[in-house]
Amino acid sequence: MGNVIELDIHTLGKGFGAEARGVDLANADEATLDALVNAFEHHGALLLRGQDLQPADLMRYLSKFGTPEEHTLKEYTLPDYPNIYILSNREVNGRKGSHYDGVGWHTDYSYKEEPVKCTMLYAVEVPTGGGDTLLADLCAAYDALPKEKQQQLDTLQLHHSYKYFMENREFGRMKLTPELEAENPDVFHPLIRTHPADGRKALWVSTGTVRGIVGMEKAEADALIDELIEFATQEQFVYRHKWEVGDVLVWDNRCTLHTGTKYDDANSYRVAYRLWAKGDKPF
After folding, report:
1. Which domain holds residue 45?
2. pLDDT tens digits, one per residue of 139-166
3. Claim to verify: residue 34 and residue 126 sit in the same structural domain
4. What is the 3-state secondary structure (H, E, C) of the chain?
5. Are residues 182 and 122 in the same domain?
6. Is 124 inside a domain boundary?
7. pTM score > 0.85 for this model?
8. In total, how many domains does the chain have?
9. What is the pLDDT of residues 98-121, one digit of tens each?
């Protein structure tokens, strides 16, 4: 057996998420990276602050979580690093990043048969006001539901659609090309999801990609989805991350919702790198 690394772990708030202190990711050994991934599996989100990383460092860390996932919109990726997506309102070398990507409660790639396992964000430049990321603990939300409500929701399936999402979103709305539509067919996922690490249950509701609930009239389904989103995103279940340059935050899409927030983009800049690790089929 290799060395067992004891991390300096601090809860982010409300019993959800963790910060690992005293880790230099750029120079971390394999045992330390393994320990970070293990902490992530059981905390829902993992934060490291004060990092100074090159793209290759980010890719090394991400690869510990799983196989790097590609991005649907290739034009916003970092040159020579197709797995690193640029979130930015700054133009660099004639290229811009995606500006208000990720505003609205959702899980990433929920429109895929195998949604991404985790999302990693690395803060390169932080705006002067706003731009926070909010994470909702869907396991705590599920546990807070009455037993009869849990049972009612347990067999429901959500209809996810990339086409529906892109043609109705608030920012970056677009009509899909036939190629993109063919690459992203509609999928169906359970409303209550089981976490493979320890079997905990999550209220895996979302917005954006969710077109409806199987076997339910649209008006009834929309009302239930709105009710569950409102419930799961109550303050008691939400961690608000205020970004500092050098932050690396990884969250678990199997048991969280997240949303970006607007910022003072007229007077300040944001540059962040987003990476994804492949996941598996929800059950």
Report:
1. 8-108+116-136+238-277
2. 999 999 999 999 999 999 999 999 998 9
3. yes
4. CCCCCCCEEEEEECCEEEEEECCCHHHCCHHHHHHHHHHHHHHCEEEECCCCCCHHHHHHHHHHHCCECCCCCHHHEECCEEEEEEEECCEECCEECECCCCECCECCCCCCCCCCCEEEEEEEECCCCECCEEEEEHHHHHHHCCHHHHHHHCCCEEEECHHHHHHHCCCCCCCCCHHHHHHCCCEEEECEEECCCCCCEEECCCCCCEEEECCCCHHHHHHHHHHHHHHHCCHHHEEEECCCCCCEEEEECCCEEEEECCECCCCCCCEEEEEEECCCCCC
5. no
6. yes
7. yes
8. 2
9. 776 778 899 999 999 999 999 999
